Amino acid sequence: MKFKSKALLAVLFCTMASVSAFAQKFEELAQTPPMGWNSWNTFQTKIDEPLLKGMVDTYLSSGMKDAGYTYFVLDDGWMTMERDKDGNLVADPQKFPNGMKAFADYVHSKGLKFGIYNCAGTKTCAGYPGTRGYEYQDARLYASWGVDYLKFDWCNSEGINAKEAYATMAKAIRAAGRPMIFSLCEWGQHQPWKWAAKDGQLWRSTGDIGNAFEETVAKDGWKPLSVLNILDRQDSIRQYAGPGHWNDPDMLEVGNGMKYNEDKAHFSLWCMLAAPLMAGNDLRKMSEQTTSILTNKELISIDQDALGVECFKYYSFDGIEIFVKPLANNELAVCFLNRSNRPQIVSFDWKAHIISDAITKTNIDFNQATYKLHDIWAKKDIGSTDKLFKQTIGSDDVVVLRLTK
Asked: What are the DSSP calls for 150-181, one per residue?
C-alpha cells in the first residue's frame, strides 16, 4: 500500500510538472491577433513622455481605438543605461520625469492597454540593459507598473538557447501574476512557430521589416525585409497559427513612405495573414488615405475573424497571386495581388475552381453553392460567383473580396 501511494504521488508530480511545462502563458489572451501601435518604426529611441502622451491622445481622436486598436507599446530606448543599486530597470528620468507607472496610468486612463520592450540578451538592440539573468525581477517590475504587453527581442544573445530564454521569461510573467501578452521577437531564427505556442501569444516569423513594398535599401550595413520578402515566407508556416498563438510578420509600415497602393496592399495582406496589426507610423501626421487604410473596419474584421486562420496562396502566375482565407460561418476572403510592374486584367471563373483547405477542412465547389461578392476597398457588392469576376488591378495593388453565402 505504501508503494502504491508513492507511485501515485510520483504520477501526480509528473502530471503537475507536465502541466506547468505547458501552461506558462495566460491562455485567455489574444484570441484574435493583437492590434496596437509601437514606437519603433518612426521614433526608434527618440521617445519621451510629452511626445507619447500626444500620440496616445491622437490614438483616440484619429479613430484608431474605435477601429479596434488596443495596445500602446513602447519599444527600445525607454530606460537608463544602467540598472539601479538593487538591480531594477529605471525609466529614463529625462524622458519620463513622472516615471513609467504614471505614464502607464495615463495610457490606461484613455481606455488603452500598455506595452513595453526588452530583450532576451544581455543588452537590448540599442544597447540598454537586457533581461538576461533578471527575468523574474523584471517581470515583477512590469506587473507593478501595469504592463499588459511585453515585446521581447533577441539582440546580444550569443550563446543563449532561444527556447530556454523565452520559456524562462514566460514563466517569470506567469509568476508575476499580471496577465500580459508575450510577444517573442526572435526573428524566426529558431523556428519559434514549432515551440513557442506554450510560451507566448505571438512570435516573429522573420527579420525586421522596412518601409518598402518590393525591395529595401541597405543602410549602415544592414538591409531590412520588404513587404513581399516577408509575404513569401509565410505560406509554409500557416498551420502553426490560431487563436492565442500567432505568426507575426512584423509591424505595419503603413504611412511611413510607401505609395498609397503599396500601403493598401500591405495592410490587406497582413489582414489576410491573420497577422498582429501593430501600426508604426506617426499618428499625428496621418493623411486621410493612411487613416482610411488603418481604420478599414471591413478589412480588420477579416484579420480579427474568430476562426483565426491564415490565408494560403491558391494561385500564382505572371505576377498575379490569389490568396484565400477561410472565415467563420463558411465565408471566405479572397485577395487578388498584382506584384508585377504593369496593370493586369484578372478574369476568374469561380465555377472552374474548387477551394479546398486541409487545415480548416474547407471545401467549396462554386457549382454547388453561390456566394455574394463584396469588394472591401470599393465598399460595394459586385455580384456573385455565378458570373466571371473580371477587373484590372494596378501594379503592386490588390482587390480584396469577402464571399458570403
From this structure: EEEE-SS-TT--HHHHHHHHHHHHHHH-S--E
Of 303, 325, 345, at which residue does a domain stop?
303
For Cα atoms 273, 227, 32, give the angle at the middle one, nearest 5 degrees. 25
Report DSSP state, residue 274.
Answer: T
Q: 389-393 and 344-348 as β-strands: parallel, antiparallel, unpaired? A: antiparallel
Mean pLDDT within 291-314: 98
Chain segment 120-154, per-residue pLDDT in tens:
999 999 999 999 999 999 999 999 999 999 999 99
pLDDT grade, residue 218 (50/70/90)?
A: confident
Identify the pLDDT of residue 6: 42
For residue 206, give the nearest of 266, 247, 155 by alpha carbon.
247
Residues with a known catalytic role: 153, 208
Report how far residue 327's alpha carbon sits from residue 333's, in angstroms, rounded to the nearest whole number.
7
Q: Is residue 21 part of a domain?
A: no
3-class DSSP assignment, residue 287: coil
Q: What is the dihedral of CA 305, 114, 186, 155, to 10 degrees?
A: 160
Give CA–CA dist 394/343, Å, rounded: 4
Question: Cβ(183)–Cβ(35) under 8 Å?
Answer: no
Digit-coded pLDDT (tens) for 226-244:
999 999 999 999 999 999 9
Last residue of a domain, one of 303, 337, 366: 303
One domain for residues 291 and 372: no
Task: Phi first, then psi: give them for residue 305, nearest 5 degrees.
Answer: -55, 140
Burial 198-214 (b: 16+ CB within 10 A, else e): ebbbbbbbbbbbbbbbe
The Cα–Cα gap between 114 and 150 comes to 9
User: Mind listing the pLDDT tens digit for each residue in 43-54?
Assistant: 999 999 999 999
CATH code of residue 168: 3.20.20.70
DSSP letter assigned to residue 38: E
Tally of domains within the chain: 2
Mean confidence (pLDDT) of the chain: 94
